[in-house]
Write a structure and sequence with these properties.
This protein is of the alpha+beta class. The chain is 22% helix and 37% strand. Strands 1-2-3-4-5-7-6 form a seven-stranded mixed sheet, sandwiched between helices. It is globular and about 40 Å long.
């Protein structure tokens, strides 16, 4: 039985580092530790953390407004991809953002992840861009409430 919970930052960091910043030391990795952020961990049936995400209260980069959330550090355990853990982390995070008054979620999505986000209601904005040393990304947005 999978469960997704709001957890302390220390719970999500190991999987984020393994998947998103392989070979980097924690001090080198640009992983978030911001006041007001919340962290989601997805646990499998044996209580291993198999999916994670970080949500920050941060305005959209080109259309700032109130109650906007940035999604960062989304990752699933490599050996467990395709089992719905990313969806569980995203769904729990979106629900939490809505509970906190969220009106919009945005992310700089890695290009290979664009179909995943699109399947969950995100739309791309603008052209592909590069974030060294990570690679190509798209700005993606999902409205949570009408303005």
């Amino acid at each position: 039985m999978t469960r997704a919970e709001i957890v302390p930052r220390r719970v999500v960091r190991p999987l984020q580092l393994e998947v998103l910043r392989p070979g980097q030391m924690l001090s080198e990795a640009d992983l978030v530790d911001e006041p007001g952020a919340f962290y989601v961990a997805v646990y499998d049936d044996i209580d291993d953390v198999v999916g994670v995400a970080t949500f920050l209260s941060e305005p959209h980069p080109t259309r700032p407004g109130p109650n906007q959330w940035r999604l960062r550090g989304m990752a699933s355990a490599p050996a467990r991809r395709g089992e719905g853990f990313g969806t569980a982390a995203l769904t729990r995070g979106v629900d939490e953002a809505i509970e906190r008054g969220g009106r919009l979620i945005w992310a700089n999505a890695r290009t290979p992840a664009v179909p995943f986000y699109a399947a969950h209601g995100f739309v791309t904005e603008g052209e592909e861009f590069d974030i060294p040393p990570i690679g190509p990304h798209y700005l993606m947005t999902r409205r949570l409430a009408d303005d």
